[in-house]
Amino acid sequence: MTHPLAATTHDATLGDIHAAALESLPLDVHDYLEGGAGEEWTLRRNREAFAEWGFVPRLMSGRPTPDLRTVFMGVPLRMPILTGPFGVDTLFHPEGQKAVARAAARSGISGMAPEAGSYSYAEVRRAAPDGMAFGQLHPVGSEDAFIRRLAHFEDCGFRALVVTCDTPTAGWRERNRRNGYTPPHAVTGGNFTGGEGTGDAFADLFGGSGPAWTWEKLARLMSGTSLPWMAKGITTVPDAEAAIAAGASAIGVSNHGGRQLDGLPAALDVLPEIADAVGGRAQIAFDSGVRRGSDVVKALALGADVVVLGRLAIYGLIADGEAGVTRVLGLLSGEMANILTLLGCAALTDLDRGFLRPLRQSR
Ligand SMILES: Cc1cc2nc3c(=O)[nH]c(=O)nc-3n(C[C@H](O)[C@H](O)[C@H](O)COP(=O)(O)O)c2cc1C
After folding, report:
1. How many domains does the chain have?
2. CA 88 distance to own-chain centroid
3. Pseudo-torsion of CA 236, 242, 247, 253, nearest 10°?
């Protein structure tokens, strides 16, 4: 199901790529991608929150062209962007996360291979090892099965682990209920079927065992790996503290793009307080609602070290596979560099809240 962009005008902006991607989708897949949980309050709030911050430039700063390079969890990146661990990836393009890995490598960044992806970890890594330095796991299932999954994960050569903590069960997604839609097993089974997979974990993963997990159990099991790990799905200071106490070296501030618990504030709303509380003890990745370069700059100014793309990367993937994701990353990098230049900010390390002002009295 590829839908090559017919003319350059269809990918002149990230908004054009979004529109081109949606044109081609059947309604149930469209709703699965674009929808959120409950009445989609959190999904909407994720976008509104960005509009509540305005920029404060420093004119005539005499600063050189901005340098976007950074290092996240030991992985060098050409810009502070990662692609996220979205499963069900062949719903969007036959090459799925393999195309994302190639685009990430080509763009000098990295992605996060999803446990519930259409291809196995090993297949995604083989497509472009440098483009998939991170892999994602769910803290669910029996301890024995988790230890096996962790060992398999290490064998695949990932440099860091992402543990998704906000998914003890799937969110209450009403569009899917209305459409009677559940993604087919084939698009989530890459790590659970066939020779390279981790066998019987699929049933564990979606079998309702998630709520029985605790930070203490996760800490104990993660002490068995030397890989650095990030806790993804954090929206409160106490959970950030618990994740650090459990050994996480990075915090993923995220509400899963509004797909899990409806009624959570925007991820951007909670980013400053979490960044303040963490105070440099862990690196911070941010996602949920990012749709353009100015969003990335705002999240970085509010305390993120790196920004993770969910749907935005998927729009590129749907629009034109590897080339579409590469185009999304190129447009983001261009817009970020443009905004930082206009702000008079030459180094990511200089980018702080002084470059932003709240546009609402309540802040
Ligand atoms: C179709 C789809 C599938 C996803 N699958 C996963 C997953 O398997 N594991 C995970 O941790 N997050 C998953 N996510 C969440 C993303 O990693 C990310 O947190 C979210 O998309 C960010 O919000 P945004 O799409 O508004 O940018 C998925 C998101 C989408 C849209």
Report:
1. 1
2. 14
3. -10
Closest-CA residue to 311 (of 267, 258, 260, 266)? 258
CATH number, domain containing residue 269: 3.20.20.70
For residue 216, count other CB atoms closer than 10 A to its CB.
11
**CA dist., res. 169 & res. 294, Å (int):** 33
Query: Residue 80 sits in which domain range?
Result: 9-358
Atom of ligand 1 nearest to the CA of 289: 26
**pLDDT per residue over 71-100, tens digit each?**
999 999 999 999 999 999 999 999 999 999
Q: Is residue 335 part of a domain?
A: yes
Residue 113 has pLDDT above 60, yes or no: yes
Q: Is the CB of 118 under 6 A from ligand 1?
A: no
Which CA distances in Å does 101 have to 43, 118, 124, 285?
27, 13, 7, 19
Task: For residue 3, tell me if it sits in a domain.
Answer: no
Q: Within a domain: residue 143?
A: yes
Give the active site residue among 18, 93, 138, 256. 256
State the Cα–Cα distance between residues 166 and 58, nearest whole angstrom: 39
- CA of 45 from ligand 1 middle (Å) equals 16
Q: Is 256 a catalytic residue?
A: yes
